[in-house]
Amino acid sequence: MEKLAKEALQSDFPRAIRPPVGALNVWSSVAAAVLAAFYCATSIYIASHHLFWFDELLTVHVAWLPDWLAIWKALAHAADGMSPTYDMVVRMSAKVFGHNEVAARLPSALAMAAGLLLTFDCARRLTDGLHGLIALSLLTCSSVLYGGFGYLARSYAIYFMFSAISLWVWVHTRDDKRSSAILFGVVLFLGVLMHYYAVLLLVPYAVWEVSRWKPWQPFSPKLIAGVLGVVVAAALLSPVALSFSRRFSAGYWAPPSFLQLRATFSEFFPDGLFLLGIAILWIVLAGTKDGNIVLQPMQPGESIGWLFLSIPLAGFILAKLKTNAFIPRYFVGTLPGIAVALSCLLWRRFRHGYRTSLGIFLLLATWGLAKQVNTVRHPESVNPFGEPFKMETVLSVEEPVVNDGKRFVVFSTGGLYIFAQYYSKHPEQCILLLPPRIGRGWSTTGLAVNLEPYYPMQFWKLDDLKQHARETALIWPAQGTLDAMQQAGFKVERRFVGPIEVTYLQ
User: Fold this and answer.
1) Mean pLDDT for the stretch of residues 442-463
2) What angle do helix axes 258-268 and 272-286 make, rounded to 10 degrees?
3) Do both 342 and 407 map to the same domain?
4) Which of the listed residues 360, 381, 402 is the one where a domain comes to its end?
5) Contact 196, 210 (CB under 8 A)
6) Does 304 lie in the same domain as 445?
7) What is the mean pLDDT of the chain?
8) Does residue 1 lie in a domain region?
9) Domain boundary residue among 381, 409, 434?
C-alpha cells in the first residue's frame, strides 16, 4: 500500500488506488440507482402537489413564449434572471408533457438524480462502493434536497448536475488526451449556458493548477479548454445577463455581506452540526473496533473536492465587484466536490474496517430518506423561497370579494399579482397597482412590468384606482397607497386581517 500511495503522489489521478471490483461494489451501484430513482420519483410527486411559486412563474411565462427569439427578447428586456438555454429546456419539456407544473419541473428532478449518481460514481472510483454511497447520501442531507431543487422550475439542479459531471471528467479521464480536454470544456460551456454562476465551477480547477504550476510547465489542457468553454458561453449570454444586471443589480434583494457568506456554508447542510455530532459519537464507539488503521496520503481527487469550498468565496468577490447578488443556492455547484472529498477522507481513515463507514452511511441515508418521506407525506410544508404565507391563500379571497360586489382585485406587489393572474378563475379582474415611480432596484413589480410586452397584464396608476375605488378590493395594499386614498377623501375598510389583508375603499 505504501507503494500505491507513492504512485498517488506522482500521478494526478491514479487508477491503481481502488479496491478490486466485488460484490460490495456491485450492490452499492444497485443501491445508488435505487436511491436516485427514489429521490427522482418523490420529487416528481412533490412537484405535482404544488402550484408555481413566483420565480417559477417567471420561468414558465418566458419559456412558453412562441419561439426562442421571443424568449431571447424577453430576457434581454430583463423579464427574468434565468438563462435562455434553460428556458428552452423547460419549453421542450412542455411540448412533450404539456403546460403544467410537473412538466416544467421534470428537468430538475431528472438532473438532480443524475447529479447524485455521478457524484456516487466519482467517489466510488476513487474509493469503493460503500464510500461512494456515503457521497451520495451526504448530498441527500444537503441543500440539494432541502432547497427543493429537484422540484423547482429553476436551473439549480441542472447546474448541480454539470458540477458533478465536471468533477467526474477532471478526475477520471486522462489529462494528456485531447478528447478529455474537449469534453471538460463542453461540460463547463453547457453549465454556464444553464446558470450564469456556473462560471465559478472553473475556480477549484484553476486553484489546483496554479498551486502546482511551475514556470517551465504548461497548464493542463483541460483547464485551458475549461476557460475557453466558460468564456464562450459567457460571451454568448452577455446581452441578457448584462441587461438584467443593469436593471436590477444596484438594488438587488440579496447583496453580498460577510454575514451571508458565513451563513452560506451552514445553509449547504442545514442539519450538518447535528449529523456531525452523531457521526463523531459513532466514530468514537466503533472506530477502535475496525482494526489497524493505515492513513493513506490525500489523493488529488480529494484535494480537488475540498477546493470546491473556494466557490462561495469566489462568488462573494464576484458579487462585490459586479453582480451584487449573493444567494446560497447560486453556489449549489460546491456540493459534489464536498461530498467526494468527505468520502475520500473517510476511506483513507477507515478503509480497513467497514464498521465506521457503514454506520456513517446508514446515518446519512436514513436521515435523507426520512426527510424526503416526511416531505412526501406533507407536501404543503414545502417553502423553498421562504414565503410568509401559502400562496394558495391569495386565491381564497377571490370568491368572497366577488360576492361583496367588487369587480376588480388589485395587488400592490408584482409577486402576488403574477401568481393570482395565472391561477385566477377571472384573470381579467386582476390588476397590478404601479407605484408613482419604479426605481432601478430589484422588485417583483419591476419584473412584472418588464414581462408585460410578452404576456397580457393589466396595470393601474393611482388615478385609475380612484376612478374605480368603490368597485375595487385591495389585496395586501402598501401603507403609502392607503394613506394616499385617505388623503383623497376615501374611507378605508379592512375586511379581512390575517395572512392576506383585504381592504375596501368607500
Assistant:
1) 89
2) 50
3) no
4) 381
5) no
6) no
7) 88
8) no
9) 381
Query: Is the domain of 212 the same as that of 285?
Result: yes
pLDDT for position 439:
62
Q: What is the CATH number of the domain that holds 463?
A: 3.40.50
Range of the domain at 429: 392-505
Question: How many structural domains is the chain composed of?
Answer: 2
Same domain? For 109 and 43 the reply is: yes
Amino acid at 154: R
**Tens-place pLDDT, residues 365-412:** 999 999 999 999 998 888 887 776 677 888 888 888 888 888 999 998
Pairs from 267-276 (Cβ < 8 Å, separation ≥ 24): 267/143, 267/328, 268/142, 268/143, 268/328, 268/334, 268/335, 268/338, 269/141, 269/142, 269/143, 270/143, 270/146, 271/141, 271/367, 272/141, 275/141, 275/363, 275/364, 275/367
Using CB atoms within 10 Å of the CB of residue 350, give its burial: 0 to 12 exposed, 13 to 18 middle, 19+ buried: buried
DSSP 86-146: HHHHHHHHHHHH-SSHHHHHHHHHHHHHHHHHHHHHHHHHHS-HHHHHHHHHHHHTSHHHH
Q: Which residue has the cell 421542450?
A: 92
Check whether residue 457 and residue 376 sit in a common domain. no
Q: Is 430 helix (H, G, I), strand (E, B) or coil?
A: strand
pLDDT tens, 150-162?
999 999 999 999 9
- For the record, the C-alpha cell of 407 comes out as 369587480
CA distance 397 to 395: 6
Q: What does the pLDDT look like over 342-373, one tens digit per residue? A: 999 999 988 877 889 999 999 999 999 999 99
Task: Output the CA angle 302-307-309, nearest 5 degrees.
Answer: 120
**Three-class DSSP category at 77:** coil
**Residue range 212-229, pLDDT digits in tens:** 888 878 888 999 999 999
**Are residues 356 and 260 located together in one domain of the fold?**
yes
Residue with cell 394558495: 392
Taking residues 224-251, report their average pLDDT. 91
Helix or strand (DSSP H, E) at 172: helix 156-172
Query: Measured in whole angstroms, how far is the alpha carbon of residue 318 from the centre of its chain?
Result: 18
Residue 7 has pLDDT above 50, yes or no: no
Q: In the chain, what percentage of residues exceed pLDDT 70?
A: 92
Contact call for residues 271 and 145 (beta carbons, < 8 A): no
Distance CA 172, CA 407 (A): 64
